[in-house]
Amino acid sequence: KILRTGDDSQILEDIEELLIGADVGVETAQEIVKAIEKHGKLDEAGIRQAIEDEVVSILESTQGEPLSLRAKPHVIMVVGVNGTGKTTTIAKLANNFVSQGYEVLLGACDTFRAAAIDQLEIWAKRVGADMVRHKPGADAASVAYDALSAAVARDIDVVILDTAGRLQTKKNLMEELAKITRVSSKVVEGAPHDVLLVLDATTGQNALSQARAFSEACRVNGIVVAKLDGTAKGGIVVAIARRFKIPIVYIGTGEALEDLAPFDARVFAQGLLR
Amino acid sequence: ELTHKLEGVLKRLRGQGKISEQNIADALKEVRLALLEADVNYKVVKQFTEAVKTKALGREVLTSITPGQQFVKIVFDELRNLMGEGASEISFASVPPTVILLAGLQGSGKTTVAAKLARRFKQKGKKGILIAGDVYRPAAIEQLKTLAKAVPVEIYYEKENRGVVEIVERGLEIARKRVLDCAIIDTAGRLHIDDSMMDEIREIKQRVNPNETILVADGMTGQDAVSVASKFSDSLGIDGVILTKMDGDERGGAALSIKAVSGAPIRYIGVGEKLDALEVFHPDRMASRILG
Ligand SMILES: Nc1nc2c(ncn2[C@@H]2O[C@H](COP(=O)(O)OP(=O)(O)OP(=O)(O)O)[C@@H](O)[C@H]2O)c(=O)[nH]1
Ligand SMILES: Nc1nc2c(ncn2[C@@H]2O[C@H](COP(=O)(O)OP(=O)(O)OP(=O)(O)O)[C@@H](O)[C@H]2O)c(=O)[nH]1
Ligand SMILES: [Mg+2]
Ligand SMILES: [Mg+2]
Question: Mean pLDDT across the stretch B251-262?
Answer without folding.
Answer: 96
